[in-house]
Amino acid sequence: MEPFMREATSVDVATSLRELREARGISMRTLATKSGLSANALSMIERGKTSPSVSTLYKLANALGVSITAFFGAGSEKKSIVFLKADEHVRMSFTRGIFEELGGTQFSGNVEPFMLTLETGAASGLHSIVHTGHEFVFCLRGKLEYQVDKKVFQLEAGDSLLFASKLQHRWKNPGNTVTTALVIISGFAEGEQPNAMHWKKEE
Fold it and tell me: pTM higher than 0.85, yes or no?
């Protein structure tokens, strides 16, 4: 559908999650407790029987102490210049959408760009997101609703939004067509992982 996504490499969330958990010596039960998910739900994700929602991915990243981009498995040395051809992009599926990594896992600076492709009804989750730094959103097509600090913004193709990420925020595709948006998180504190979101309770 999107030429820049068609040749992208896909990430197996189940395998990445299992490898991250085992590399840290964390049992499935312990991770379930730390993330607020049930052991059964976690088992289903690790066995590839169910696709996690975005908020579930963020919960797991937070419990593992990593950025959500760690699921992309990029463990290479950080670079000051990152150039990626279209077929070198890596993407990960979540419930009703695709998260496409655009080089942040390889870059030495504090910036994480990624692309979101969202089906109708796709949403970030039940709970608001809060992290350090700033967030820039550019809607490429479709409609995207962002709620920031109790204010609701309706983005359409060509519209942009920039805000301090310490403000509670969430997003969803309220339209009846696929939405594509570029999101750039920058200026977060050294050593922090802005995508490791903190969730108050289980979905």
Answer: no
